[in-house]
Amino acid sequence: MRGRHGRYDRLARWYRSPIFWILCAAAVIRLAGITWGLPASDGWDDDGIAPRNFLVGLVETYAGGSFFTYPPLHMIVLTILTAPGWITALFRAHSFAQRDVIAEIIQVPFMTFFAVVARLVSAAMSVGTIYLVGKMAETVGGRRAGLFAAAACALNAALTYYGQVTNLDGPYLFWSALSLWGCMRVIAEHELRHVRWAALSAVAAVATKDQAYAVFLISAPLILLIWLATDPWPRANARSVMTTILLWTGIAAFALLAIDGAIVNPVGFARRVSFLIGPASKDYAQYQNNWIGRAVLLKDMWSYFPRYYPPAAALLGVFGVLLHAVRLRRDRALFVAGLLPLLAIVSFTIAFNFVALRSESRFFLPQSILLAVYIGIAVDRFVFGLYPSMAEPLFRYVVRGLVLAIAVAAFYQCAGIDAAFLGDPRYDAERWLRSNVHSGDTIETYGLNAYLPRFPKDAYVTRLDTKKLTARNPLPHVTELDQPFGSVAKRHPRFIVVSGFWVKDYLKWNPVRLGDGRANQEVRQSTVEDADARSYFRALFDGKLPYRLAYKSVYKPGFWPPEDAYESLAQTIFLFERQVPAQASIAAYKAKPGVVDTAGGRPHQCLYQAQRGNLEVGTACAGRGRNRRA
Fold first, then answer.
1. Torsion of CA 97, 98, 103, 107, to 10 degrees
2. In the chain, at which end, N or C, are there fewer CB atoms within 10 A of the end residue's CB?
3. CA separation for the pair 361, 309 (Å, rounded)
C-alpha cells in the first residue's frame, strides 16, 4: 500500500507541475502531421527513413561491403517497434524469397503502420528534447528558468515540423540534449557518475545521425579545459576525473564502431565514411569553401532565425547569455556548466555548418534548440527579477506583456506548421484527380515519391525521371519509364502531374555570381544541364504543347503564415490535361523497351527490364549506397 500511495503521490506531483502541461501542449501540437499523406505505400517526408528505408538501411549497414547513408541506431529502434508489422508481412508473403517478401511488405497497410509508428517515435523524442532543454536551464538557472526554456523550445517552429516527420534530425537532437545535460550535471554537481550516461548518449546521437559529432567535437574538450582551469574541485580530484572520462570515452568509441558496423562490415563502413565526406556533402554545398562563403553562411543563419522563433527571441537569447555570465560569476561550477550549450552552438557551427556549407532548416536546428536554454534564463530574470523600485508594477506588466506577445507570435508560427500539414496542396490535387480521372486514363508524372500526390488506382500511371531505373524507388501501380521527356507526343498521356518544387530548376535557373560567397549546388547544376528536360518543361508550362493547365493546387494559408522552408511541405502541384486525343493503346505502350512495370504491387526493389524482348527480373536494390528517395 505504501508503494502504491508513493506512486500516486509522484503522479499527482507530476500532473500538478507546469512542465507536465508544457509537454502535453507540445505533444498536441505534434499530432497534425502524424497521418500526413497516409494511408500510402510511401511517405511525404522528404529525406525521411520511414516507411521504406529503415529496414533496407538496417540490412545494408551490416551486409558485407554494402552501406547506407545514415547510421543504424534509430533504424534498430524502429525495427523493434514495428516488429508486429514486418513479422506479419513475412508470414503473409507467398514465400521467404526476397521478391515475395518485398511485394507483401510494401503494401499500403504495412507501409502506413510503419510510417505512423516512426512519426509517433519522432514526436515522443521531440517532446523529450523539450524536457531535456528545460532541465539544462534548470541546472544552471533554477526551476523557473527551466520552465521558460522548455516553453521556448516547445514553441520552436522548426522543431514542430521535425517532431512530426521521420527525418533523423529530431532523434539525434534528443540524444545530444541528453548528453549535454549529463555533462552539465557532472560539472555543476561534481558527480562523476553522470559521465557514463553523457558518453553513451553522445554515442547514441552520432549513431543516429553522423552530424551529431559536431555538437561535441569542439565543445567537449573545451569545456573540460575551462572546468579544470576555473573550478578547484576537478583539479583536486584530477585522477578520478580523468580516469572516469578516459574510461567512458573508450567504451563509447568502441560502442559507436560496433553499432555503426565498423567491426562486422569494415569495408562498408569505410565506403560510407568516404561517401559522407565526399559526394554527400560536396555535391550539395551552397556556399564557397572560403571565409567569404562562411561569412555569408553566418549572415544567412541570422536571416533565417524567423524559421525557428520570432526575431525578438534572439535578443532574449543573447541577453540570457550575458545574464548567465554576470549572475553566476561567483559560482564557478554553475558558470562553467552554463557555458556548455553556448559552446555546443559554436562547435556545431564550426565543425558542421562551416564544413557542409549548407543552410537548410534542419542544419541550424541544434543552435535554435540550445538557444532556448538562454531564452529561459532571460525570461526568468525579466519576469521576476528586473524591477526598478520606483516603477515596479508598471515595469512588471510591460515586461510580461512583451514576453507574452513573443510567445503568442511563436505559437502562431507553430500552428502555421500544423496548418500546412493539414492543408497540403496534394490533398486538393487528389480530390481533383478523383473527380476528373476515369478508369483507364493515362497519367504521366515525374520526380521523387516524397513530392507526389496519391493517384487513383483505376488510372494507368507512368513516371519519368532523370535517375536511372536502378536508382529509383518505384511505387506500386506506377510504371517506371526510361525515355526522353521530350517524346511525350509518342506517349500521349491524358494527364500530366508535376510537382512545383521538383520542376522549378528546369523552369528558372539563376546561377549565383562568383565571388559573392555562394556556390551553385552541383546536384542542381547537373540537373539543369539536361537540355531535353529543360526544353520540355518550359514548353509545357508556356502552353506550346497540346496540353493545357487544367488545375493548380496551391497552398492557401489564409490566417496562418506561409511555409516555404521545407521541401515537401506546402508545395504547388500542377495538373495538365491533353487537348489532342491519344492514338496509342496502353497495351502497346507497356510493350515498349525501357519500361519497368511495378503495377500490382510488385517489389519496389526488383527491376523488370526489357531484355531480349521479354521482361526479366533483375535484383538492383533501390537503397544501396545512399538514401535514395525516388
1. 110
2. N
3. 12
**The C-alpha cell that represents 560 in the structure block:** 496562418
Its sign, for the CA torsion 266, 270, 275, 277, is positive
Can you read off the three cell numbers belonging to residue 150? 522548455
pLDDT band with cut points at 50, 70 and 90 for residue 468: confident
Ramachandran category for residue 310: left, alpha or beta (phi over 0 → left; psi -120 to 50 → alpha): beta
* Residue 78, all three cell numbers: 524502429
Query: Which of 123, 130, 133, 107 lies closest to 167 in space, CA to CA?
Result: 123
CB atoms within 10 A of CB 16: 9
Q: CA separation (Å) from 512 to 264, 287, 288, 292, 520?
A: 44, 10, 11, 14, 6
| The three grid cell numbers given for residue 490, joined into one nine-digit string | 509518342
Say how many Å lie between the first and final Cα of the chain, rounded: 58
Residue 398 main-chain phi, psi, to 5 deg: -65, -45
Of 587, 429, 546, residue with least CA distance to 498? 429
Q: Is the pLDDT of residue 587 over 50?
A: no
Q: Which of 480, 441, 464 is nearest to 586 (CA)?
A: 441
3-state SS assignment for residue 6: helix
Query: Which three cell numbers, joined as nine digits, stand for 585?
Result: 493503346
Sign of the Cα torsion 365, 367, 369, 372 reads: negative
Q: What is the CA radius of gyration of the chain?
A: 27
* Coil vs helix vs strand at 267: helix
Q: How confident is the model at residue 279 (pLDDT cuts 50, 70, 90)?
A: confident
pTM for this prediction:
0.89
Spatial contact of 278 and 522, defined as CB atoms under 8 Å apart = no
CB-CB contact of 230 with 332 (8 Å): yes
Backbone angles phi, psi at 421, to 5 degrees: -60, -50
Question: For residues 348 and 169, what is the distance between their CA atoms, to the nearest angstrom?
Answer: 14
Give how far the C-alpha of residue 187 lies from the chain's centroid of Cα atoms, to the nearest Å. 32
Closest of 481, 531, 484, 487 to residue 506, by C-alpha: 531
pLDDT digits (tens, 9 = 90+) for 22-35: 999 999 999 999 99
- pLDDT band for 422, please (50, 70, 90 cuts): very high
